[in-house]
Design goal:
By secondary structure, the protein is of the alpha/beta class. The mean pLDDT is 96. The protein binds zinc ion (2 copies).
């Protein structure tokens, strides 16, 4: 018997946690954080209490209550007994939080299988974020902290990395990872050879990025596999095909930046290496310097280790690193306490906002809304702001969006939207499903599973926590 149970990603975008049980060999496909579920109960100043171990997360349904998967320290802190791991591994599709972050709660002896680049991104995330219970993917500190203090080193998780096409086994289950194009590098789909036949898991993918050929590789392999079932993402199943592409962002943004006589500001997610490349190329082609911050440097240095990503070294002549104002506000070395900043203070391309104000048209600065207070020092006059992120899709985002517009208004900065999605559109996805033609289809990572019904495969309307025989 081969069973699949969906503990997340059902009627929601992300939070994938799929348990596959092949005659007793159990693995999880992703173990992500559900933003939707979390947002139903929690917000900025109301968070799950860490003093209750895993208790608040279980009570509010942020993670499933199943035996043999969770960390002993968190179970014990919640007044439960520790458990032996009952799952042989987690196969992680990519490094986005909605697929990866709740690995933080998992038992230390459950190995995590992911792509080499995916691991590098997780390293970068860990390097520049403050540790909390929901981002202890790479390692974790035993709770409660007063018992372990900060003297006991963190418990390092077991990671096993793979590359595309190289099959690996978790106990009796053989898995073939195949690279796909998504808005983060190191993203994979999987052919999983179960005793009932091949099962496909798409992870998150698209056809309009810079590396559509990787998704093509997956489609060919998936078609040849003659799968008994496919678990597919469906983020944008309701969307028609448009002319969106990474190339379009390059041309549209370059044109705007060329017209801007002062400072150009760009805002994008640094996990998206293609978007970085797009704006880096614009800077290079226009003879400008792209200014990034110390958090970005953590990512860029990890990307640089993967020669296939072809990113420049941090010392590149078209890159500079912005030194933020901290403590005394005088930029003395003693002002910096964060390790990820301290270890990079000797770089010779570090600049300050004051340097930029001397010749603003020379620069393009990567500046996220959360760092808009930098604008006070940058003093941009009639500058340009390119929002290369998705538009707001909920109330909280709308509020931030309005606030962002206020900042732009205050400094007389022009707003320009230029973005393309990390996810495949509905037309392309339907085509993909017809080509792969699995016998059964489990649509997840979507709010519109019913739109998959008219396809030639038998479509299952997945219910959370229900077990399906493959
Ligand atoms: Zn996702
Ligand atoms: Zn994703």
């Amino acid at each position: 018997m081969v069973n699949v149970t969906f503990y997340g990603g059902v009627d929601e975008i992300g939070g994938n946690k799929i348990l596959l049980d092949d005659h007793g060999t159990k693995i999880f496909l992703d173990f992500g954080m559900s933003f939707k579920r979390r947002g139903q109960f929690f917000e900025e100043f109301l968070n799950p209490r860490t003093a209750n171990g895993i208790g608040d997360f279980l009570e509010m349904g942020l993670i499933p209550d199943i035996p043999g998967i969770y960390r002993s320290d968190l179970l014990e802190q919640h007044g439960r007994k520790s458990e032996e791991p009952a799952v042989s591994g987690v196969v992680l599709s990519h490094a986005h939080a909605d697929h990866a972050n709740y690995i933080s709660f998992l038992h230390k002896d459950i190995p995590i299988y992911c792509g080499e680049t995916c691991k590098r991104i997780i390293n970068a995330v860990a390097e520049q974020t403050t540790r909390d219970l929901e981002n202890e993917v790479i390692d974790f500190r035993i709770r409660p902290l007063y018992r372990s203090g900060y003297k006991i080193p963190p418990v390092i998780r077991k990671f096993r990395t793979f590359t595309t096409g190289k099959k690996f086994k978790i106990d009796s289950i053989e898995i073939e990872p195949i690279h796909i194009d998504h808005s983060v590098p190191g993203a994979y789909a999987f052919l999983i050879y179960t005793t009932e036949g091949p099962l496909i898991y798409t992870g998150d993918l698209r056809m309009h990025g810079l590396h559509a050929e990787m998704t093509d590789d997956f489609i060919i392999a998936a078609q040849q596999a003659k799968a008994v079932a496919m678990i597919t993402e469906g983020t944008r199943i309701e969307k028609k095909k448009t002319n969106e592409s990474e190339q379009k962002i390059y041309y549209d943004s370059k044109k705007k930046i060329q017209q801007c006589k002062t400072l150009s500001i760009v805002d994008f997610n640094f996990k998206d290496v293609d978007r970085f490349t797009t704006f880096y190329n614009i800077a290079k082609d226009l003879g400008k310097t792209l200014v990034i911050n110390f958090k970005h440097a953590c990512f860029l240095e990890q990307y640089y280790q993967d020669k296939k990503l072809k990113v420049p070294p941090i010392t590149d002549q078209h890159l500079a690193l912005l030194k933020p104002k901290r403590l005394t506000g005088t930029y003395i070395n003693e002002d910096y306490t964060d390790t990820y900043i301290k270890k990079r203070l000797h770089y010779n391309n570090i600049i300050t906002a004051a340097d930029i104000t001397k010749n603003p048209s020379r620069y393009m600065i990567v500046l996220n809304f959360w760092y808009f207070s930098e604008l006070i020092d940058l003093k941009p006059k009639r500058g340009l702001y390119i929002h290369s992120l998705s538009e707001p899709f909920n109330e909280e985002m709308e509020i931030s969006y309005d606030r962002m517009k206020n900042w732009l208004g205050h400094f007389d900065i022009e707003f320009f939207q230029s973005h393309c999605s990390g996810h495949i559109n509905g037309d392309d996805l339907k085509e993909l499903i017809k080509t792969v033609h699995p016998k059964k289809l489990y649509p997840i990572h979507t709010e519109h599973p019913r739109l998959f019904k008219k396809l030639p495969s038998k479509t299952i309307m997945v219910k959370e926590g229900k077990t399906y025989k493959l």
